[in-house]
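TA notes, week 10

Several of you asked for a full example with nothing omitted. So below is the full record: structure tokens for the whole chain, then the designed sequence directly under it. When grading your own attempts, check the secondary structure regions first.
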């Protein structure tokens, strides 16, 4: 899931100090959109697991449909979880003697979750297909839009990590990052990988490709409609009839949303002015990524002087350098021979 760009909080044994659920786990459950309890044969013997599950159900019920439970039945059947067999039923009966009220609550919780359609996995079954199925389901439910990138990328990981570090995802500030470099150096590819890694952390995201070409052929109003189409019903987006109207709608719709927006292949200042001129257009913790060949367009929230544009301090820049020789040789080998370069 982490590799697919999903932000995950994993319950681990290190959190199990005593029988009560700690504040860290409670906060993680409250902040999560999807819960994946894994029911094993011994699940009902853990008070910790049962309290955790009960809190998941509580948060789901009060979320008005914004949270969801996706259970995995590991070598057990939904009937076991619904207490139609003795597997969990006997364990809970013993609990009732010492913790009557809480045990009754756990019974109701298990029955509720046992009715939810999930995944069944026997111990001898392969986990590969299950893992892929779970990841795909989670991505769909998170409404994460992923960009296709070439398989077996070469020399990208270090660049991606450096860019993510610059974006400082823990900061509440709105940050602009301009990724620049010569044509064909890999700006868009690196940005797509970053977008895929981070998009699940935002309330909404949009990747506007080929801004330069779209602005020339279809104009700024089209681009503004494209930008808002991921955040607003189409009937309202289609009401944009002039650029200023589009700017005002972008500010009105996005000023309180945590968003990730990519403006790919920008070549003029006015493109930024009409799509993402100032940080206060967007909600706290938003990230705006711009790819461009020309550093001269990076005047955002600044002023022009006789010496040229002044770049605002909150606009970060990352230059994509040409590929190092050993990476270039690796890439050549993949394309020329269909295999990795081997050294002797």
């Amino acid at each position: 899931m982490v590799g697919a760009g999903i932000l995950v909080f994993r319950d681990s044994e290190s959190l199990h100090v005593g029988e009560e659920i700690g504040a860290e786990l409670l906060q993680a459950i409250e902040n999560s959109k999807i819960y994946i309890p894994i029911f094993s044969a011994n699940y009902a013997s853990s008070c910790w697991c049962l309290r955790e599950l009960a809190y998941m159900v509580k948060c789901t019920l009060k979320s008005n449909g914004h949270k969801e439970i996706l259970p995995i039945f590991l070598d057990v059947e939904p009937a076991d979880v619904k207490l139609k067999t003795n597997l969990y039923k006997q364990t809970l009966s013993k609990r009732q003697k010492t913790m009557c009220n809480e045990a009754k609550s756990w019974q109701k919780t298990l029955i509720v979750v046992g009715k939810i359609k999930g995944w069944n996995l026997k111990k001898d079954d392969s986990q590969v297909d299950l893992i892929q199925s779970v990841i795909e389901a989670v991505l769909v439910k998170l409404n994460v839009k992923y960009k296709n990138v070439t398989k077996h990328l070469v020399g990208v990981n270090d660049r991606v990590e450096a860019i993510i570090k610059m974006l400082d995802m823990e900061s509440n500030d709105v940050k602009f990052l301009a990724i620049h470099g010569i044509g064909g150096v890999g700006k868009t590819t690196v940005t797509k990988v970053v977008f895929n890694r981070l998009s699940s952390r935002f309330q909404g995201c949009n990747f506007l490709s080929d801004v330069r070409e779209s602005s020339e052929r279809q104009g700024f109003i089209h681009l503004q409609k494209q930008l808002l189409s991921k955040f607003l019903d189409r009937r309202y987006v289609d009401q944009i009839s002039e650029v200023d109207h589009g700017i005002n709608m972008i500010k009105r719709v996005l000023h309180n949303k945590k968003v990730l927006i990519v403006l790919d292949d920008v070549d003029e200042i006015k493109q930024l002015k009409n799509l993402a001129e100032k940080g206060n257009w967007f909600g706290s913790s938003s990230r705006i990524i711009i790819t461009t060949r020309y550093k001269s367009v990076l005047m955002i929230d600044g002023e022009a002087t006789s010496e040229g544009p002044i770049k605002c301090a909150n606009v970060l820049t990352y230059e994509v350098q040409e590929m190092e020789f050993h990476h270039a040789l690796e890439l050549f080998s993949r394309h020329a021979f269909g295999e990795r370069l081997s050294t002797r």
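The first strand starts at residue 34 and ends at 35. Use that as a sanity check on your answer.
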